[in-house]
Amino acid sequence: VQLQASGGGLVQAGGSLRLSCIISGRSDVSGGMGWYRQVPGKWREMVAVVTSDGSPLYADFVKGRFTISRDNINKTAWLQMNNLKPEDTAVYYCSWYEWGQGTQVTVSS
Questions:
Q1: H/E element holding 10?
Q2: Are the C-beta atoms of 84 and 107 separated by less than 8 Å?
Q3: Beta bridge partners of 18
Q4: Residue 73 to residues 7, 23, 27, 34, 50, Cα–Cα distance (Å)
Q5: Sign of the CA dihedral running 54, 80, 78, 107
Q6: In 2, 18, 93, 104, which residue has its Cα 20 to 30 A from 80's Cα atom?
Q7: 75-101 burial, b for 16+ CB within 10 Å, e for fewer?
Q8: Within its chain, how far is the Cα of 83 from the centroid?
């Protein structure tokens, strides 16, 4: 199984980014998918997860700003990030039983 995350970059505070995660190597992607983030020296933390039927769960610090979604047929998950803040700067990882390689998100003030 491989998880390929993309969509990170540099954005000003208040801006938006959309992360994508494509899963390959499996025909079935049932089960929860998630996005996590990590900054140097800190534990990796959950940002958002979505169940097989599309029900989302968000960390308090992204509620109202981020939206997680998935497409089981195309084996893809997305994280739409709006109103980004400098404290959202981190490496973002997608997860589905395994970790993807991470994509850097940097938000300038």
A1: strand 9-12
A2: yes
A3: 80
A4: 20, 11, 9, 17, 15
A5: negative
A6: 2
A7: bbbbbebeebeeebbbbbbbbbeeebe
A8: 15
**Is the Cα torsion angle 63, 105, 86, 81 positive or negative in sign?**
negative
> 108 and 13 in contact (C-beta within 8 Å)?
yes
**pLDDT tens per residue, range 30-86:** 889 999 999 999 999 999 999 999 899 999 999 999 999 999 999 999 999 999 999
Q: In Å, what is the CA distance from 78 to each residue of 40, 102, 108, 109?
A: 24, 13, 22, 25
- What is the residue-wise DSSP string for 38-81? E-TTS--EEEEEE-TT--EEE-GGGTTTEEEEEETTTTEEEEEE
Say if residues 23 and 29 touch (Cβ distance below 8 Å).
Answer: yes
31 contacts 55 by C-beta, under 8 angstroms: no
Taking the C-alpha atoms of residue 60 and residue 63, their distance in angstroms, rounded to an integer, is 5
Q: Which residue has the higher pLDDT, 19 or 25?
A: 19
